[in-house]
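re: that chain from earlier
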Amino acid sequence: MELFERLRREYEFGIGTVKGVARKFGVHRRMVRQAVENALPPLRGYRRRAKPALGPVEAFIDAIVAADATAPRKQRHTARRIHQRILDELPEWPVAESTVRNHVRERRRVLGLAVLPTFVPQSYAWGAEAQVDWYEATAELAGDRVTLQVFCMRSMASGAAFHRAYPRATQQAFLEAHEHAFAYFGGVHRVLRYDNLPSAVRKILRGHRREETVRFVAFRSHWRFEAQFCTPAAGHEKGGVEGEIGYFRRNHWVPIPSAADLDELNRMLLAGCRADERRRLDGRERRVGEALAIEQDHLLPVAETGFDLAEVSFPVVNASGCITVRTNAYSVPLRPGSLSAPLTSLRGIGHGRWCRPASTRPISRSGMTVSVSPVMSAVIAAGSRFSTSITISTCSSASRGRWLAPSRSSNGGKAGAGRPTSMRCGGG
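^ sequence. v structure.
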């Protein structure tokens, strides 16, 4: 632009000839004529270059891109995958990956497959909406690396978020995590937005209508919030919590956290939530903690009494003398085939008449919790395989010797030499 201005001034107030101006500035006379005719430089055009390497495989690429138009969104070819197919199926026509990538981009634009959706920025009133989701994360608990399910609730107005980890994403954990989140925020948001998770939705109906689970409806009524559900496979409808999960995972789950147990890990996650209150989100005037303090005055008050989260079941004692709660087995001092007393469990097992406390519930699936009680001494003395049973293997060395002593004394010092007999996992 500046060169055009100098050419025009020199032609009008200086030398005055096209040839003289071109010689003085060292440019082509065509450029001088263009500057004299118009103060704006002409748009530069680029001639289409020949693509000799792409020619033999162009029809092959176009056919793949056209077929992808009807394929599932997550099973379409990438440019790299197309290039790999060319190398495998058409090895006699080698072509660079960058050439394939450029052609695929242009072809998708022509076919209308590269049109990006338009998103409308949202604005939220104080206390109006929070978004909820689960995600997976790995941690080391007592030296073992385990995969956990983490609950996340994010306030859309203040940007504050609450995270809590559980062994499984059960409905009880789902509801309990809500109550912990309400306590963290200091109130209840008027609308909670979910995807179609099975803890809340039994069946997806037409449009935005859902058939919700009975316990979730009762829980929602107790805490007086409204539930809204996203369109299936449309995670952008709750993009706030999706972005929060990514940020929290990168900043508080890296490196992999280590804790003695799940309670200690959740205390670490809560400390991370408090630390994030010092953040200032893009486009926000206040820090997250300052906005949360303002929002608390606009939240629904917390209910005076909590929701009854316990689940009542009637398990039957199996042939091993154990009852099964969800995926884990627990020993009880009852005969096989009998119906145990009503079992009220909270996040697993813990309030039944003959049940182990909730803190001993195995984190892994298909686990077994057993114990030995004095009522089993007669079985131990007569049992032929008790020395190798799961029950005796869970005892300490001192306890194992104490329980095997009657068997050794009655069988000439050899444990487990008596006659075969039936045996259970142990008393509760």
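The CA atoms of residues 63 and 261 lie 55 Å apart.
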